Amino acid sequence: MNDNDRHKKMAQKRNAGYEKKQARATLEKGLLIVNTGTGKGKSTAAFGMALRAVGHGMRVGVVQFIKGAMHTAEREVLQKFAQVEFHTIGDGFTWHTQNRAQDMATAQKAWAVAAAMVGDASYDMVVLDELNVILKYDYLDFDTVLGALQNRPPRQHIIVTGRHARAELIAAADLVSEITPLKHPYKEQGVKAQRGVEF
Questions:
Q1: Buried b / exposed e across 4-39, counting CB within 10 Å, b at 16+?
Q2: Measured distance CA(155)–CA(163) in Å, rounded
Q3: Dist. CA 21–CA 46, nearest whole Å
Q4: What are the angstrom distances between the C-alpha of 56 and each of 22, 59, 94, 117, 140?
Q5: Taking a C-beta distance cutoff of 8 angstroms, is the pair 157, 124 a contact?
Q6: What does the alpha-carbon distance between residue 101 and residue 84 come to, in Å, rounded to a whole number?
Q7: ∠ CA(197), CA(38), CA(42), 5° rounding?
Q8: How many other C-beta atoms are found inside a 10 Å radius of the C-beta of residue 116?
């Protein structure tokens, strides 16, 4: 058997496996998606999905829980679409604010907006950016948040981002990605955050 024949046989086998999986996958439902880990790209992946949803004509809601003090290019782009509602309610990174009471009050304000979106079936996808960080520091009641996410409209997709996702949230999720850093220029080379890459 030559290389072309081997390649064709392997491709046919893979295709048969793919077709079998596709035939079994008949359920359509909203997914609870968690992007976590210490690597870069958790929010980036979520906004990529949001942009994909926009391309399908879906309505998207976004709440950023931490990044309120920062300009983000994703906000500039996504809020231009009529079917996207984008709220940045955070006060900045917790190590900048250094005020737990203020951070908790801001988190409550952001969650009120997020909870309204999560309870509204007209939103096809809701991105809760950096919510994992808020939950790690107990700025919100975890059981209340998890209950809302689990009782969302049946076709609604939720994407939760941020480091340190709680084990209970991971267990409840349909899709979990843990992004692990292998190399980063900030740490390895002292390269500052780059426009278009980090922000």
A1: eeeeeeeeeeeeeeeeeeeeeeeeeebebbbbbbeb
A2: 26
A3: 25
A4: 21, 9, 35, 19, 33
A5: yes
A6: 30
A7: 50
A8: 13
- Give the global pTM: 0.89
Give the whole-angstrom CA distance, residue 75 versus residue 90: 13
3-state SS, residue 80: coil
d(C-alpha 139, C-alpha 107), whole Å: 6
81 DSSP assignment: S
Could you report the per-residue pLDDT of 48-101, keeping only the tens digit for each? 999 999 999 999 999 999 877 667 889 999 999 999 999 999 765 555 667 889
182: Cα separation from own chain's centroid: 21
Domains and CATH numbers, the chain: 29-188 (3.40.50.300)
Q: Which residues contact 175 (CB under 8 A, 6 or more apart)?
A: 31, 32, 33, 34
Place of tokens 């709440």: 63
Q: Give the residue among 149, 77, 75, 74 at the shortest CA–CA distance from 111.
A: 149
